[in-house]
Each structure stands twice: as C-alpha cells, then as structure tokens.
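FYI - complex with pyridoxal-5'-phosphate, inputs then prediction.
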Amino acid sequence: MLDLNFRNKNGVLHIGGVSVESLAYKYKTPLYVYDQKLLKKTAEAFKENFKSNQFNTEIVYATKAFSNLYVLGLLNTYGFSFDCVSYGEMSVCLKAGIRAENIHFHGNNKTYDELSFAVDHHVGLIIIDSSDEYSLLNEILTDKKKQVDVLLRINPDVKTDTHQFIQTSNADSKFGVNIRDDNTKKLIKNLIENENMNLLGFHAHIGSQVKDLSFFEEEAKVMIQFTKKIQEEFSYRFTSLNLGGGFGCKENFDDDDLDLERLLRNYISIIESLVDDYGLDLTDIGIEPGRSMVGMSGSTLYRVGSIKKTLQGHPIVFVDGGMSDNIRVSLYDAKYSAFIANKMDCDKKKKYRVGGKLCESGDFLIKEEELAIPERDDLLLIPFSGAYTYAMSSNYNKLVRPAVVFVEDGKDFLAVKRQDIEHLIENDLYYKQDV
Ligand SMILES: *Cc1c(COP(=O)(O)O)cnc(C)c1O
C-alpha cells in the first residue's frame, strides 16, 4: 500500500520524521512538503506494476503536474521518460539532466520556435496534434534536413466522469484529431508517406482524475481497434501506442483509497489481452501519469492568521496563502482536507471554512472542515496537494512563491527556495519622467 509517512508526536505532526513546526520555522509558510519515501514508492509502483512480457512498457511522467530540477532528477533515476508541452518544460528537463531522447514533446499549439528547438536537440518523440502542426513540422524538418519519430494524437471520444475542464476526449475537444473525423485518415496517409517523419503509432489521453478502470479499458480497446484497422488499410506496421495519463489520485480523507498497484496490474493485463486478440505486434506501450505520480506525497503547510464569522454565521479560518499556491479549488472545485498540524491530540472540534488571503471572493481552500479549534499562529496542513499546485502557482497580490522541501527519514532537503521581494521586481523597469 502507498501510505503517507505521517506520525503524531506529542500532538505535533511529523512528516518523514521531521516536525512540521521545525519545517515552518526553517522555511516559512506557506510551504510545499513532499514525503520523499512515498514519492519513491509511487515511482517504484509504476515501474514494477506496469510491465509486461509481451512488449516494452514506458512510463512517461507528465512534467506539468510538478516540475523542478529536484523532482525531475529524482524521477529520472527510475528510467522514466518525460512529457513536456513547452520550450520551458523541455529546457528545465534538459537542465535537470534528462536526456533529450527521453523527452516527448506534446501540446496543441507548438510554436515554430519550440518545434525547431525540439528538432535541434533531438527530442525523442514529437506527438503531432493537428494537420496544421504536421505541415509546420514538415517545413522545419525539410529545412533542417532532419528526421523525427512521431505519434499522432487521436481523440478517441471516450467520455469520462470528471470535471469538464479536465476532460479532454469529446467531439468538441481542442486536443488531437478526432477518431471519427474523415480528415484524420488523410493526415495519417500523409504521415506514413512523409520521409521526414517516422510514424510509430498513436497517442490518446482521455482526461484527468479518472478513477474507474473501465474508462481506460474502453480507451485501450478503441485505440487498439483503431490501430489494427489503420494498419490493415495502409499495410503499415505500427510499433507504439501511448494511452496517456489521467489516473486518479486521492485528494482528501473521504476519497476511497486507490489501489494504484492493482489498477496498473489490471490495466496491463487488459492491454495484453487486447493486443493479443487483435493480433498486433506492438513493441512499446506507454502511459503518462502526472497527478498520480506526485499528488499524494505532497502537502501544503500554512500558518493560521485571522479567524472570523460571516454575518450568516459561517466561521472562517484564514491562512497565509490561498489561490496563489493552490488554484485548483477555485478553478475546478477540487475538494481537499485539512487539519491543525500542531493540535493532533485535540478532541474538541468545530466546523470551519478555510479561506486564503488573496483579494478574490472565490479564494477558499476548503468549503467546510472539522478542525481542532484554531488560533492565530497554529499550523494548518492540506495533504494530498502535491499535483498542479506549485505548478499552477502565481504571484497574484504579489505573494511570493513558497519553498518546496522534501523530507525523508528525519532529514529535509530544500528543492525550491522561497521567493523574496527581489523576485517580484526582477524584470520590472522604473518609469523615467524626462525622456
Ligand atoms: C496532462 C496530461 C497528462 C497527465 O495527466 P494526469 O491527469 O496528471 O495524469 C498526460 N498526458 C497528456 C497528453 C496530458 O495532457
């Protein structure tokens, strides 16, 4: 089982053997705290459970979920590949020591400069999103007299049951080319005939925070059927299939424990039988976990400030961060849990709303939570907040971005320093009156 290394010592939470009081003192709050042992176990779980004797498997970490030199360096030791969607994401991966051949370049609007950069640096795989992008890449490859391996992103039209902002597979989606679109075949024909691009196969990604394996089963089936159909129609052999990410991840204490290991083992056996049934000789099957790799092991630690009651009677406890370090609550109604991390033994509890300090009415972190009666300067922890939080953080209201620290076996490792005021103005220029 993948569990957090949380311990209560004399009423104070310790993560990976380190007290949150000492972390808050050393690194200030808000603070992203990652349970390094759990992250390593999660990475191991992907590696050990998504494997097959029938074909090679590839774990591609979706770096957009949480990317910095430290975490990329850590995940790189597992032999993963890395999914990037911008010049920035590719550059950070390269700086982290990831080999270009292990980078997969994704995105629905890759620019001329980004594609040129990817080609110049010999990025391992480019995932083509549209006919327009195909033409642009072809132009670049012709100019540079270079070749690349590509996949084509197919929208398999598999509906999921998650929030519409994190669904990617429907007839109106902005991602990929639709499986039912007549133009898709023309593009495949062009790709097969193109000398500059080596089409290895197809890619699909159905959305995010999908917890029910049946959606992935449906996706795998649709994509394997499709691969088979196209293979016969064009007498062309495909070697690869990437089924994307989107595996769900526990986000609060009420969420069911998700047995990731079992899900991955079941998924691989489903894929194996489908590949068998359709008589495909695929050599490489990939998945692209983001959230499920880093979500559970990360927590956000805040300091409690003011406490007030609205006229309607709702008690609110305010913390020293909010939508600037975790926008997921206001953006898509994500539901987290919280507790007072320095009052773990306190039985007296009351319901509070947890609000942030930013100037937006929507700036709440939790609608309602039973908390040990909070007082100013207490520490409040939001667990399971490791994915798409730091990654989507901002300097709104000129709040500085928090530090990121990893903890394991009583030791802490600073991964990202807290910003200071200099960072807020480093690109600013002064107004000069007499020019
Ligand atoms: C975002 C994304 C992922 C990762 O999704 P998670 O829900 O974080 O696992 C994988 N592949 C593609 C193409 C994506 O856009």
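The mean pLDDT is 95. The radius of gyration is 23 Å.
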